[in-house]
Each structure stands twice: as structure tokens, then as C-alpha cells.
Amino acid sequence: MEFECAVLDNIRSNYDEIFSAERKVADYILREPENTVRINVSELAEASGASDATVIRLCKHLGYKGFYQMKLQLAHDLGRDQLLSGNIQSNEMGTWEDVLKEAASNIMQTKNNINGEALLKCVDLILNCDTVHLVAIGNSIPSALDFAFRLGRLGIRSTSSSISEHQINNVDLGTQRDFVIGISHSGSSKQVLLALEVAKKRGMKTAVITDLLRTPIEKEADITLSTGIEYSSVYIFGAASHIYITAILDILIYQLDRAKKDAAKNALADDVEYLLSETKL
Length: 281
Description:
Mean pLDDT: 85
Largest sheet: 5 strands, parallel
Structural class: alpha/beta
CATH topology of the largest domain: Rossmann fold
Low-confidence stretches: 80-91
């Protein structure tokens, strides 16, 4: 849905009608529109001296469903380049070798952002829970499905689905001995947030894996694992690369494999590999 009025014009024409707390957010957007499309709800709230709830209220008062929709429209207002690249000062496209170099460099940078203690705590919770529930939406779903499959190869029971209602239902049917992991590039997915809220009511431990360092979802999670890589060359607005989140998932699988000493479960994993061997040359 495209709005007839540009975001900045919308803010100016409704400025006198919005609440004083919301004006701090509006002032920041008017002053820093380019930066606004680069940040998420929590970062805008911090930059403007407001709360996450105030940012969302402003967006709704202006007629948008939420901050993401307003940001998408603002990016469109600022020009197509805003939609196609997270880099506001867009540089000329490099070669495919440059894309690989950038990805490798970014993955190495994630080691400075990953909390090692939180990662090991996540491993421990996975090993000692009854079931791991994977929750994701949009283009994060393939990462969740792949991780769930690999957990199963290690003999760890998990649930996952490409349908968000199924994911939340799995969590709702769980017990206090289950563990919920939300995967979200932006850390702002409503469905993931809802699943974490349901998990908290059920007394479950929760974790969120994201690319951003400060997100709304992390406030609801017991553990946060962030890559800190918000943008890259392989970025289309709302469809960022999940290479970096996958790197965290690979680390978890590696740590889980090292930590598992149960011979019976390891034998089960070997049996599954044997059964699948007929599918390979």
C-alpha cells in the first residue's frame, strides 16, 4: 500500500495533532530521515529520547500499521536506492569476489559481538530441555527449519513450521521444560515477539538470534545472540542475507555436537545417517 502523502509531509501536516512525547520522535525523523530508514524501533526510541511504545503510537497516529510500514514508505519517498541497499551513501557495485570478501570479513567481525557466556548458556538449555521450539517469520523461516533438522540429527527433539500459527501453537502446547528460540534479522517481528510472550507465560526459557545489537524482541528473551551485522551488499529492504545468523547456528550445532556424550543418542544419529545413505551416490 502506498500513501498519497509522503512521510515527512504527513508528519508536518499532523504535527499539531500528535502528543508531546511523540513530537520528540517526529522531530528526529524530520531531522534525520536518511538515518531513520537504517534503524529499528528501539534504536529510533533511544535516538529520540522516547520509548518503543511512543514510536509505535506515533506511526499509528500518522495512519501506518506500525514503524516498519512507515519506514518502508519513507525509504520509498527517499528514492529507490534506499530500498535496494542498506548503505545510504550507495557505492558502485563491486564484483562477486568483493561480495564474498565482505561476507567473510563480516563473519569474522561477529566474534566481537557474540556473547560467549550467553552462547554456552543457550547450548546448555538446548541440551537439558525436553523440546526446542524454533520460531521465525518471513525469510528467517528457512534458517529455523534447517536448524530444527540439524538438531534432530543430533538426537534433539524440536518443532518448527513455515506457518506462524503452527509455531505459536507448538509453544502454547509446551511445558516449562521446553526452550523457545526466536530467529529474526531485525529483532522486530511481531509473531516472534508473541511466541516469546506465550513462552514466558508457560514458564519456558527463551532466546533470540538476530543481526541487530539492540532490538525490541531481546527485552522479552532470556538470552540474546546478535551478530551485529545489520547491512551488507547482499541486502534488499526487508530481505537481508542470513549468512551471519547461519554462522551463529553453525556455532551452536558445533558446540552441541561437542557437548553430547550420550552414546545412545549418538548411535541414533548414526542410524539416521545410515538410513539416509541410500539417498546418496
